[in-house]
Design brief:
Length: about 550
């Protein structure tokens, strides 16, 4: 609005002079004659600015007002109109139960989203280009999955319908960080990232590099595990270990968020090799995510011994440590292993862990996990192995055929009990992470399963505690790798607009071992980087709002 000007003009009908105030507002002239009538009209404003009828009425009521008061009122109105325009949001989530595990907020609020950020959380009404009525629904930070192998679009679709806004390959990492990030740029439904892979570095050094492209049997999923052989089973020389570390440095420089170690898949790695890799991680100020060396109670090679090894490496080097799927690595000794993590943390070590809510695991049947002695270590037999595509329970002959094949096949491993899982999931130190890939229901149902079973049915978790395990705790773990994580896992003003809106009374996993890709139900809306990805329970087509999370070696 231009500054007001005053003119002295003469009435052509009666020859009298009077003062006229002239204001140019939104491209229209508005005139006020002192002692007379408005020389403009209300329609001068319509379609020019978001001014309400109330505001127009305020202008019309100014007749007879002293000039200074009039000028001030019009300037104030113009300023107020500008503020109203600035408070228009891209998206408003209205009237939902807003929950934030970090601040403890749990109340009915309206959430305004602008430019990919949470711009406003308020009990007052907000205006937006799109307003979603979230009454009766929970509005929470989007779930963060630290352990997701399936990076294909089909996996991302079922993750989104399970409430996940970020899914990262952190357990082992991909063979080629640069290739992975390039392939997913502008083609990802949800946020993504990866660790630098010690397994791949080892295979490279031993002359059996893993392919950078995705798996032949599971398109979209990187081939992350080598077939059992010299690259997995033989000890490395000091020179080979140094070559591995050089490769890992390069992968961290390319954007790797951490160092991923699948020690059970590289049994030839000595204790010193493990310590040297932890030293590299400490040098680069990134954590180590690890699948520990062994499972079961048989010594040597028990779960307790395996947890001791990595906690010891963390203590020696100062590297932060994240132990993946403690439920399937420690089995019947899971609570004892959790007490070891608790003891390490009480003494100042940076050790964290995770679990998923299923009794079966899944891995590659021709990997080193199935080296001789696996039945004794795991306490299972051939019949406890099941092919996910057919439901076939293996025999010794069928196992030998698949284990010796050059083609990688996934296999379900029924080695745990519901009693163990039910004790692990509610433990306060345990984050939720899926270990998801096509062929296992945890790919599609992990987060809804926790909310349905442990919050609503078993009541061993409060809703806020469950959300903390799925949002804030993994975000805080990621802060060790990237400052970008400080804006995730929270529902607060200025945080990233990664938000899930779900019905706490009905949310449920639908995936089973027979139908592992059946999507969960109960997630009504999902917002990723401010973009609506799930709208009224359905994936929005042709939007790819997912962005890379990059480690300290490379900035966004």
């Amino acid at each position: 609005m231009n500054s007001p000007t005053e003119e002295i003009i003469q009435d052509s009908l009666n020859g009298k002079t009077f003062r006229r105030i002239k204001i140019i507002a939104w491209g229209r002239q508005i005139s006020y004659r002192r002692g007379g009538r408005f020389a403009g009209h209300r329609n001068a404003f319509r379609g020019q600015s978001p001014v309400s009828d109330r505001g127009l009425g305020m202008i019309a009521s100014l007749e007879g007002t002293p000039m200074r008061t009039l000028i001030f009122s019009l300037i104030l109105l113009a300023f107020s109109t500008t503020i109203v325009a600035a408070q228009q949001y891209d998206l408003v989530l209205e009237g939902g139960r807003v929950m934030d595990p970090e601040t403890g907020l749990d109340g009915l609020r309206n959430v305004g989203i602008r430019d990919g950020k949470i711009a406003r959380i308020s009990s007052e009404a907000l205006s937006g280009r799109r307003v979603i009525h979230a009454s009766g629904l929970v509005v929470a930070p989007g779930f963060i999955d630290l352990h997701q192998h399936g990076q294909d679009l089909e996996s991302q679709r079922v993750k989104a319908l399970d409430g996940v806004t970020t899914a990262l390959e952190m357990e082992i990492g991909v063979p080629d960080v640069t290739q992975f990030l390039k392939a997913k740029a502008a083609h990802s439904l949800i946020h993504f990232g990866t660790a630098a892979s010690h397994v791949a570095a080892r295979a490279q050094v031993f002359g059996a590099p893993l392919p950078a492209e995705t798996s032949k049997t599971h398109p979209g999923i990187p081939e992350i595990l080598p077939k059992s052989g010299p690259a997995t089973d033989q000890p490395a020389t000091p020179e080979q270990i140094e070559s591995m570390c050089a490769h890992l440095r390069s992968e961290l420089n390319a954007g790797g968020l951490a160092v991923g170690m699948g020690i059970q898949y590289t049994p030839g790695a000595t204790r010193l090799e493990v310590i040297d890799v932890f030293r590299l991680a400490a040098e680069r100020s990134v954590p180590v995510y690890t699948h520990v060396r062994s499972s079961g109670r048989a010594e040597p090679g028990s779960s307790v011994e395996s947890i001791s090894e990595v906690i010891g490496a963390a203590a020696i080097t100062g590297a932060a440590l994240h132990i993946v799927h403690i439920n399937s690595s420690c089995l019947r000794d899971s609570l004892e292993c959790l007490s070891m993590v608790e003891g390490a943390r009480a003494r100042g070590l940076d050790v964290t862990t995770e679990a998923y809510p299923y009794i079966a695991g899944m891995t590659s049947i021709n990997s080193a996990l199935f080296n001789p002695g696996w039945r004794e270590k795991l306490g299972i037999s051939y019949g406890d192995l099941v092919l996910p595509d057919t439901g076939e329970h293996l025999t010794e002959e069928r196992f030998d055929e698949l284990h010796n094949s050059s083609t990688t096949y996934g296999v379900l491993i029924f080695s745990n009990t519901q009693e163990v899982v039910d004790k692990v999931i509610p433990h306060p130190l345990v984050m939720i992470a899926s270990d998801g890939a096509e062929g296992h229901p945890r790919n599609a149902g992990t987060y809804s399963r926790v909310l349905a079973q442990y919050v609503r049915e078993k009541r061993t978790l409060t809703l806020m505690d469950a959300l903390r395990k799925m949002t804030l705790m993994p975000a805080q773990m990621l802060e060790r790798s990237t400052p970008a994580a400080r804006q995730k896992g929270r529902l607060q003003e200025s945080a990233d607009a990664d938000i899930v809106v779900f019905d706490a009374a009905t949310i449920r996993d639908q995936a089973t071992f027979e139908k592992p890709m059946a999507p969960s139900t109960g997630v009504h809306y999902l917002v990723v980087a401010g973009t609506l990805l799930v709208d009224d329970g359905k994936i929005v087509p042709d939007v790819f709002p997912g962005r890379a999370l990059l480690g300290p070696g490379k900035t966004n």
